[in-house]
Every structure is written in structure tokens, then in C-alpha cells.
Amino acid sequence: MSQPLGQSLDAVAARIDGAPALLIALAYDGTLSPLADTPEQAELSAANRRLLRALARHANVAVAVISGRELGDLRAHIGLEEVIYIANHGLEIAGPGWSFVEPTAAASRDALKELTADLAGRLATVPGALVEDKGLTISVHDRLVPSELCEEVRQTVHGALARASHPFQLTVGDRVYEIRPRVYWNKGSAVALVKEKTGKADTLIVYVGDDATDEDAFTALANDITIKVGAAETSAAHYQVDSPAEVQRFLGWLAEHLG
């Protein structure tokens, strides 16, 4: 069961002090930025941008921002050269001097475009429904859909997946349906690759996330520091905070602790 982070900072500090290097991986929407009605409205605060930059400039500290967003979109919202970008739920990564795209997902682009067109056509008459084509994944948002039509969105998504000739994986988030190619790769795999690329096998990872897809990373990082944002009754994360505001306070504490 996840423990409240605020009651466990001494234990977290002890682990950080004993680590030769840190990789701080943070989800974007719902973690660094509050969830918004549309993806465009979720902005990174100036305070969080300063904290990310300060942490990334520490010796032996790497900072990664991880998201279901497409790589270019994520970069545009963060706007920092110092951080590593893990986009599309880990299927594409951009680090200093290197990049990665999961090969099976890359080969699924045409099938994803076909599914995107099918969903967009079927949901065109549903007010507020948003089908987001992210190249390697699809998001179907129903945050602005009238409550009486949300079941129609759900049935449409499941129906489109049942008709698709290509295998896809569906994850249900906070008012969003995340559709990905069915590949043996997730956010935990992506963070492991980033750790490998930093060149330090004994790096301690601090992973903070709020989404159902972050649970893959929480499970994979059982020996590291994992923090769930929001309700955590069934989460594999070690620690829990209530909101992005608490994440910002934690980053401030971490920056101060690192000196």
C-alpha cells in the first residue's frame, strides 16, 4: 500500500543521499500540470519549469518528462533542452545526442491512421469528443462530452477496436481512452532504457506519475522510489501525493535537499 510521501521524506532523503546518481522521471499531465479540458490547455507553470531546469543542471542528476503526448507536442509544452523527453507512453524518446522509436509501434503507423479516421468519423456527431492522432498512439477524450453521451463514446471506442484488423491495447485514464499498438514495451521499459543511456547502472530512479499507464513503471521500479499522484488504493507505487501542487512542493524540497 502506498504511504503518504510527506510522512516519508526522511526515508526518501536517506536513499537519495546514498545514491551515486539520480534519474528523476515525471509524468506531465496530471503530475507536473493539472489535468485540463483539452491537451492544449495543460500548461507547465514557470515555477515547475525553473525547478526542472535546476534539477537537471545538478551533477549526477538526469531529469526525464514522460507523457502520452506526441514528442513534438511534449517538447513544445516543456521547452527545456536539459531534460530527456519520453513521449507516446514510452514509444518514442529523445535524449542528448540519441533518440529511440519502438520498432513495432513505428510499423503500425498506417494501421493507427486508419483507426484514427474510423474513430473520428464515428464520433464526429458527439459534442465535445476529441480524437487525438499522436502518430504512434491515439487518445480519445470525453472530458467535454455531455454525461449522457459518454456511454456512446465508450461503445464507439470498443466497437472500433473490435473491428480493427491490427492488434491494439486500450487503457482507460481520467476521461481519456488511450490506444496503443500491442507491443512488449511500456513506460517502465522506456525508463530502463533511459537509465542505460545515462551510463550509470547504479542510478536511483525517482518516478512520479498519476496515470494507469504509469503502473507499469511502478511495478518495474520496485527497488526505486515511486510516487503516485492521486488516489492510490490499488497502486504499486511506494508513496502517494494528492495533487500536482504537492508534486511541485516535492520538487522544491528535492532541489533544496540536493543543494
Notes on the structure:
- The chain has 259 residues and is α/β, with parallel strands linked by helices.
- It has two domains: 3-102 and 185-258, HAD superfamily/HAD-like (Rossmann fold, 3-Layer(aba) Sandwich), CATH 3.40.50; 107-181, Trehalose-6-phosphate phosphatase related protein, domain 2 (Alpha-Beta Plaits).
- It is 36% helix and 23% strand.
- The protein contains nine helices and 13 strands.
- It has a nine-stranded mixed beta sheet, with helices on both faces. The protein has a four-stranded antiparallel beta sheet with strand order 7-8-10-9, with helices on one face.
- Strand 5 and strand 6 (98-101) form a beta hairpin.
- Helix 2 packs parallel to helix 9 and helix 5 packs antiparallel against helix 6 (150-163).
- The longest helix has 15 residues, at 244-258.
- The model has no long low-confidence stretch (mean pLDDT 95).
List keywords for this structure.
four-stranded antiparallel beta sheet; 23% strand; alpha/beta; nine-stranded mixed beta sheet; globular; 9 helices; Alpha-Beta Plaits; Rossmann fold
Short summary:
The chain is of the alpha/beta class. The protein has helices at 9-17, 46-56, 71-78, 103-106, 109-122, 150-163, 187-198, 215-220, 244-258; strands at 3-4, 22-27, 61-66, 84-87, 92-95, 98-101, 130-133, 138-141, 168-172, 176-181, 204-209, 225-229, 239-241.
Number of domains: 2
Determine the number of helices (DSSP H or I, runs of at least 4 residues).
Answer: 9
The number of strands is 13
Residue stretches low in confidence (pLDDT < 50, at least 5 long) are none
* Second rung of CATH, namely the architecture of the largest domain: 3-Layer(aba) Sandwich
What spatial order of strands do you see in the largest sheet? 1-13-12-11-2-3-4-5-6
| Overall 3D shape | globular
Structural class: alpha/beta
What is the CATH homologous superfamily assignment of the largest domain?
Answer: HAD superfamily/HAD-like
Distance between the termini: 31 Å
